[in-house]
Amino acid sequence: MIAARLAGSFRDPSGHLFRHAGRIYRQVNASYREDYDRLMASGFYAAAARDGSLLPHEEVELVLPIDSSDARSQSADRGAAPYKILLPEQLPFVSYPYEWSFSQLKDAALLTLRIQKTALDFGLSLKDASAFNVQFLRGRPVFIDTLSLERHPENRPWVAYRQFCSHFLAPLALMAYRDPECLRWLRVELDGMPLDLASRLLPWRTRCRIGLLIHLHWHARSQRVHADRKDSAEIAMRGGLSKAGLVGILESLENCIRHLDWQPRKTEWSDYYAETNYSSAAESHKLELVDAFLDAMRRPRSVWDLGGNTGRYGRLAARRGIPTISFDRDHAAIEESYRRIRAEGETSMLPLVMDLSNPTPAIGWGNEERMSLIERGPADVVMALALVHHLAIGNNVPLARIAAYLRSLCKTLILEFVPKSDSQVQRLLRTRDDIFPNYHAAGFEEAFAPYFSIRRRETIRESERVLYWLEASGGN
Amino acid sequence: MSDMTLPRQPLPGRKPHSTRVAWDWLGLYLASVVLFPRDAFAYLDPGTGSMLIQMIVGGVAGTIVAVKLHWSKIKRFFGIKPLDAPESGAGHDRR
Fold first, then answer.
1. A235/B contact by beta carbon, under 8 A
2. Peptide bond into A82 cis (omega under 30)
3. Alpha carbons A3 and A9: distance in angstroms, whole number
4. How far from A122 is each of A116, A125, A319, B54, CA to CA, in Å?
5. Would the CB atoms of A249 and B6 count as touching at under 8 Å?
6. Are A14 and A32 in contact, with CB atoms under 8 Å apart?
7. Cβ–Cβ of B13/A243 closer than 8 Å?
8. Under an 8 A CB cutoff, do A226 and B12 touch?
9. Cβ contacts (< 8 Å) between B64 and chain A: which residues?
10. Whole-prediction pTM value?
11. What residues does A134 pair with on adjacent strands?
């Protein structure tokens, strides 16, 4: 079996990720040998893996046929030859910073600083501080890029300082002081928010906050002033920053980020459950039915709750220990869900910001560095509760296309159909012509028939809504 | 990381001269901000400015740390008696 190199890890000469027999491995290159040995021998790895801040791995013996491009690069560069093969703990799902909520990005930032600070005590330092190096596992952020740690040369400033400020500090400040939707910028700027842009976009009063003044505004100015100046570069390369100074910078960054805050106000969606149009009897019946469907299924390995809001229904799956992703386009709903995970120590739930009418595309170098949503699927089960009317009527997506898309995401589908007579659908139609003659239960079933067959159909008590258990029909 | 239990290594590289160097560059930095308010090339070379600002800010931070570490000695130098706190070991990590 051939090992497929993952497209997202080509920049680092220290090693790369590859997929083999359904698992993700990490190759450590000969050029990173010294740093890797130091990392393992220093005691840092053991301590960080034990407390859950660094993704643990085991070293494995694995001799693989390498593809020809790798063979060519190895013969040209002995440093690229494999030194060790690591099998890291496998992540159930890879998420990206532009899909996180404010607190998720903030926790990832604090974790990165904590790792850097501890690493210094072991004579190590992070050479990257990319937000992509953090993932969420069992409800907590974890640093995944083992090869980012290298020996810290004395007196050297932190090489990843700029990256940290661009990936974490600038977007967090913009979210806190402007709008949480500023996070979407990270989808455009893959190496983080340019600091001069962030500095221009932030309100003037952020200059009164010493941390933001130094690490963002002055930092941006310093970049501008010293860019492309040979004398400045010479001074920078000579170094001259004591370890105490560096620790001071890290503590100042930490303090600054701790004080950045965003409180989700009641939005149209985060307040959704308080504002539903159906009775509590209908709601508890809906909960019961979803629960019963999940009970009757052969234990799914993954559940995606699309349009999951604050995760009420997704939690029915998460409670069973099934890794569950709850997607919603509303930042406040995702933030609320994440705060609950943190407060209650939930381990199977991951809420992510996602607009299903425009889901995360594949981006980066060659459009393959960061995966699209669909590439990260399929899930065993998808829940689409009270979602179809938003796509069909709110976004003019024909029912057949919704069916085809959902089919590409899963084999089993739990779907709630909300008929036109429902007041929520009436709200969507209030200011527009009804150009949806086929939007009714029979039309829905007909459109979905080529992709799914109906396993169960239940009308939700005290409502006109119907809950379906659908199974993919034919083919894979 | 408070929950990391392994012994800390002593702080290496806290050399008085590096603080001094940083102060020198503070002057250079402030001068350069005034003298060269250029907007070019930051996208080609954002690294230099990021390194320099750390050296400046770190110099100040390092000085504060040093002052904190030697606070009791400084107070004694000025004839202020320490109240009840025993002298904290100057060579130790500051936590």
1. yes
2. no
3. 14
4. 10, 9, 39, 21
5. no
6. yes
7. yes
8. no
9. 248
10. 0.87
11. A143
